[in-house]
Amino acid sequence: MTKKEAREIMKKLRREMSDQERSRQNQEIREQLLADPVWREVSWFYPFVSYGTEVDTKELIRGLFAEQKQGRRIHVAVPRVAGREMDFYEIHDMTDLQPGYQGILEPAEYCPKVEATEGMMLLPGLAFDREGHRVGYGGGYYDRYLARFEGTSLHLYAVAYDFQIVDHIEAEEHDIPPHRIITSQNKHN
């Protein structure tokens, strides 16, 4: 499957999901992620802020803020796009987010910039194959960002609806795959 085909098919399938199925899979994906042993060990979490029909990450972020109040030492940083580049900024509450690039919630200007060199990062994507290749939205923001920090101890995860896992998609040399893909059914990779 080409990247272009994957993008078109997955956008259509995500739009056609029923609210009940979307809610069920989002809950099961959160449960899979929260049960992952790496999740309990990390002190930094770098999620994307979900937009439109993506797997919901906002509830996960809200849950982390609740865990912080109960004493968990974990920091949350989310991306902000500037031109062709992207950087991560620490947030302390959902009120630290405001509409940014393409209407996606991004950290406010006052949020401090951080370098994602340790912890867990969630990579967004439209399709993933069983070998871990990822088709994003075509901007290359995550691939460029991660190339700047090669050799870090980041755990790269992706979250996806079950149908977003396909047998094979074309990959390019600069594409950085996640170490693990979590769906409602199980972990891939």
TrEMBL record:
Annotated catalysed reactions: (6S)-5-formyl-5,6,7,8-tetrahydrofolate + ATP = (6R)-5,10-methenyltetrahydrofolate + ADP + phosphate
Cofactor: Mg(2+)
MF GO annotations: 5-formyltetrahydrofolate cyclo-ligase activity
Chain segments annotated as coiled-coil in the UniProt record: 3-30
Stored InterPro entries: FTHF_cligase (IPR002698), FTHF_cligase-like_sf (IPR024185), NagB/RpiA_transferase-like (IPR037171)
Any Pfam family the entry gives: 5-FTHF_cyc-lig
Keywords: ATP-binding, Coiled coil, Ligase, Magnesium, Metal-binding, Nucleotide-binding
EC number: 6.3.3.2
SUPFAM superfamilies: NagB/RpiA/CoA transferase-like (SSF100950)
Protein family according to the UniProt entry: Belongs to the 5-formyltetrahydrofolate cyclo-ligase family.
Official protein name in the record: 5-formyltetrahydrofolate cyclo-ligase
Source lineage: Bacteria, Bacillati, Bacillota, Clostridia, Lachnospirales
